[in-house]
Structures are given as structure tokens and as C-alpha cells.
Amino acid sequence: MNCLSAMFKYLLYLLNLIFVAGGILLIVVGSIMLSTMGNFSSFDGANNTQTIPITIIVIGCVTFVVAFFGCCGTIRENACCTTIYTSMMFVLFILQLVLTCWVFVNRSAFLGDMSNLVRNLWNNQEYTAMGVLEDTFGCCGNTGYLNYKSINLPVPGTCCGYLDRQANCTDASVYQQRPGCNAKFTDFWYDNMDIIRWSGLGICIFELLVFLIAGALTNCMRRQNAGRQVYA
User: Fold this and answer.
1) pLDDT at 24
2) Where residue 26 falls among pLDDT bands split at 50, 70, 90?
3) C-alpha span between 163 and 194 (Å, rounded)
4) 174: nearest Cα among 187, 163, 161, 156
5) Using alpha carbons only, what angle is made at residue 54 by residues 58 and 37, rounded to the nearest 5 degrees?
6) Which three-class secondary structure state does DSSP give residue 7?
7) Which candidate, 84, 116, 134, 229, has a CA 20 to 30 Å from the CA of 68?
8) DSSP annotation string for 184-196
9) In this predicted model, what pLDDT tens digit does every residue of 133-192 receive, in sequence order?
10) What span, in angstroms and rounded, lies between the C-alpha atoms of 1 and 217?
């Protein structure tokens, strides 16, 4: 194996070690999220809230399997494993490209879904989930503190910055200035959509480069194997 092929080999091996660690991390994070979503089992939109962690687990499993073939193929110089790895990397590239394009095209619809999610939490009286939003984003109610007043409920402690939702929130100057969680949550995604879109595009380019390097290494291995058979 010449110097350039050896460089490709060890570069791919290091990249695949990162993929393996990333795949395991995604599986763990997705599992924790899926376990946490058990708190929303009574919510009508529970299936929608579980879609994200399940998708993360699936992506983690696929990433781990692809990286496994990549590590085996490159370190053992196995053309068969490397070919499978190259093909799977191409599939990942296509899927990532489709997902990125979907995010670019469906930005408005996605933001609408995020707004509907908070609205449905409020309409279904998922006050525990609302407390998490209020604590995380510094907001209060669906559209504001008046949502609690309109249904004769006291303003919860999370609207005043307390971790305990049952705490007394008596400082009107605090909760009256807090925006509704619907607008705050939607603004959060609006501000970060560019990061999500462009990082997705960057991942696509990275996967394409890895695919090209893996393809070049696979061709090199095949030529070497063919040469060995001729000399044999």
C-alpha cells in the first residue's frame, strides 16, 4: 500500500472511531429522552413528542453500524467491508441531504408545529410540561400570565423563576413582564433554524468527502487484491 493509500486508511479509521463514539452517544441521549417522554404518555400528542428521540436512536444505531464496517474494512484492509461502508455512507449522505432540504423548504411549517405543540400542551392542561418550558425559557403561560388568571388558577412559581411550580409567585412585576411560552419557544427555534440548516449542509459535505475517500481506498484495495491474484 503506497503512502497516499496509507494516509487514507488511517484517516478513515480515525474518522470512524469518532463515528462510533457519536453513534453510542446518540443512542444513550435518545434513550434518556424517550424515557423522559413517559411523563407525556397521557398527552394526545405523545406520539409526536416521541418521534424525535426515536429518530435519534435510529440515527445512532445506523451511525454505529456504518462506522463498524468502516473500522473493520480500513484496519484489516478488507475490500468487501470497505465497499459496504462506502455504499452505506452514500446512503447516509442521501438521507442527510433529503433531511437538510426538508428543513430548508419546511421552515415555516416546522415553526408552526412548534407553536401548536405549546398550544396543545396548554389546552390539554399539561401544566408540568408548561412548568418545564417556563423554567427553561423564562416565560409564563401559553401567551402570558393572563392565561392562568382567565381559568382562576394562581400564577405558578415557575413564572417567577422558582424551580418549584407550587411556590407562591406574588411578585407581579416579574411574571407580568414575562412573554408567553408559545412565542418564546417559537422564537427559540426561529433563531436557531439557520444553525440547524447550515450545520446539516456542512454534515452533508463532510459525508460526501468521506464517501469519496472511502471509494478511493476501496478501489486501491481491489487493485492490490487483483495484483496479488495475478502474481499468485
Assistant:
1) 83
2) confident
3) 31
4) 161
5) 155
6) helix
7) 229
8) HHHHHHHHHHHHH
9) 888 889 999 999 999 999 999 999 999 989 888 888 888 889 999 999 999 988 887 877
10) 10
Choose from 30-34, 74-78, 185-189 the range with maximum mean pLDDT.
185-189
Residue with the larger pLDDT of the pair 147 and 97: 147
Give the global pTM.
0.63
Q: How many CA atoms lie within 13 A of 91 on its CB side?
A: 11
Report the interhelical angle of 79-105 vs 107-123 (nearest 10°).
Answer: 70
Q: Which of 24, 121, 31, 11 is nearest to 74 (CA)?
A: 11
- Range list of H helices, the chain: 3-36, 46-75, 79-105, 107-123, 127-137, 146-150, 172-175, 181-231
Sign of CA dihedral 220, 226, 227, 228: positive
User: Rounded to an integer, what distance in angstroms lies between the CA atom of residue 65 and that of residue 60?
Assistant: 9
Q: How far is CA 66 from the centre of its chain?
A: 18
* Lowest-confidence pick of 38-47, 72-81, 121-130, 205-214: 38-47
Identity at 200, one-letter amino acid code: G
Inter-residue contact 183 to 141 (CB < 8 Å): no
Please spell the DSSP secondary structure of 155-181, one letter per residue.
PPGGGGT-S-TTS----HHHHTTSPPH
d(CA 2, CA 124): 65
Measured CA to CA, the distance from residue 184 to residue 155 in angstroms comes to 18
Q: Which residue has the higher pLDDT, 142 or 41?
A: 142
**For 167, what's the count of Cα atoms within 13 Å in the CB-facing half-sphere?**
13
Calculate Rg over the CA atoms of the chain.
25
